[in-house]
């Protein structure tokens, strides 16, 4: 093969590889939708046409927490300073639902007055190492974005928490002004107690080891706890769902059935209430849509 032929073949191979490789990430799509999934492997934002969630009116028993999240989200949408948010606490009490519903409600407010809206971008916990790549994309847009990581927690030998901690407030590049991070977790300090305790046994200075582990939570300016539902809270959630779906069940019968359902599952929460309503609606032949 002559040098010219070899060069021509190499050029064709290079052109083929370039066509096969994905285009560099672009922030242009952020202006076309309100919700996205970050796919780190592909380096792209995938739009979500319909966000799975419930309206704020169905989140009962968490008014104080709701007011805090709404105020922070509203400030951010209006161009003011705001805090990163950590929602932690009991399972099924609406932590992720509160995040999604708050962003949707604030966007509705902003559209009503022709203000700027927020983009909600979900990033999976096991893709946190790609945060710098995502932030590099978001630096190129003026649209304000909330990065949402649901069910955030870390296990032994897991170093991804250091990447997140750096992005929250210690990295040399810093967090872009148009980006906040909202996360939910069942753990108060994001890590199991035995992981923190194990650090004390191997560290030269145990107190410094513990500080390293729990300091991640401190980097969320708003640290909001959601606790298990009381019986009154649980019944309020059930009644709100029943009214929302127009279920024709007398109040006393509804409450009695709801308590029996919760007792059979050994817990009371927004998730249990939602499951009860789904079963009841199906029993009545009423679609949930």
Description:
The structure is a single chain. The relative contact order is 0.13. A hairpin with a 4-residue loop joins strand 1 (35-39) and strand 2. The chain has a seven-stranded mixed β-sheet with strand order 2-1-4-5-6-3-7. The termini are far apart. It has helices at residues 3-20, 63-77, 95-112, 131-138, 160-170, 193-202, 206-218, 231-244, 251-265, 270-284, and strands spanning 35-39, 44-47, 85-89, 119-122, 145-149, 179-185, 222-226. With 289 residues, the chain is α/β, with parallel strands linked by helices. It is built from ten helices and seven strands. It is elongated.
Reconstruct the topology from this structure.
Blueprint: H1 3-20, E1 35-39, E2 44-47, H2 63-77, E3 85-89, H3 95-112, E4 119-122, H4 131-138, E5 145-149, H5 160-170, E6 179-185, H6 193-202, H7 206-218, E7 222-226, H8 231-244, H9 251-265, H10 270-284
Parallel strand pairs: 1-4, 3-6, 3-7, 4-5, 5-6
Antiparallel strand pairs: 1-2
Q: Quick gist of this model?
A:
This protein has 289 residues and is an alpha/beta fold. It is 47% helix and 12% strand.
Q: What fraction of residues sit in β-strands? A: 5-15%
Query: Overall pLDDT, averaged?
Result: 83
What integer value in Å does the Rg equal?
Answer: 23 Å
Structural class category: alpha/beta
**How many helix segments?**
10
Distance, first to last CA: 67 Å
Instruction: Give the uncertain stretches in residue-range form.
Output: 199-205
Number of strands: 7
Order of helices and strands: HEEHEHEHEHEHHEHHH
Proportion of residues in helical segments? 40-55%
Strand order of the largest sheet: 2-1-4-5-6-3-7
Biggest β-sheet strands, sense, barrel: 7 strands, mixed
Q: What would you call the shape?
A: elongated
InterPro entries: DUF815, P-loop_NTPase
Organism: Gluconobacter albidus
Protein name: AAA family ATPase
């Amino acid at each position: 093969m002559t040098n010219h032929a070899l060069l021509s073949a190499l050029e064709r191979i290079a052109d083929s590889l370039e066509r096969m490789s994905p285009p560099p990430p672009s922030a242009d799509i952020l202006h076309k939708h309100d919700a996205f999934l970050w796919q780190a492997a592909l380096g792209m934002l995938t739009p979500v046409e319909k966000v799975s969630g419930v309206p704020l009116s169905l989140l009962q028993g968490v008014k104080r927490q709701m007011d805090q999240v709404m105020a922070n989200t509203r400030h951010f949408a209006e161009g003011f300073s705001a805090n990163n948010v950590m929602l932690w606490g009991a399972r099924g009490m609406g932590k992720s639902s509160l995040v999604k519903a708050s962003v949707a409600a604030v966007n509705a407010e902003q559209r009503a007055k022709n203000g700027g809206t927020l983009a909600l971008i979900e990033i999976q916990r096991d893709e946190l190492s790609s945060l710098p790549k995502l932030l590099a994309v978001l630096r190129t847009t003026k649209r304000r974005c909330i990065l949402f990581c649901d069910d955030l927690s870390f296990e032994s030998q897991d170093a991804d928490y250091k990447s997140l901690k750096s992005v929250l407030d210690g990295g040399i590049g810093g967090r872009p002004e148009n980006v906040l991070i909202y996360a939910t977790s069942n753990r108060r300090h994001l890590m199991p107690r035995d992981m923190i305790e194990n650090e004390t046994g191997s560290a030269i200075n145990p107190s410094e080891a513990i500080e390293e582990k729990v300091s991640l939570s401190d980097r969320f300016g708003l640290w909001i706890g959601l606790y298990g539902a009381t019986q009154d809270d649980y019944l309020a959630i059930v009644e709100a769902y029943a009214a929302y779906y127009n279920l024709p069940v007398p109040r006393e019968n509804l409450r009695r059935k709801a308590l029996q359902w919760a007792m059979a599952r050994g817990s009371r929460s927004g998730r249990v209430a939602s499951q009860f309503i789904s079963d009841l609606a199906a029993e009545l032949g009423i679609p949930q849509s």
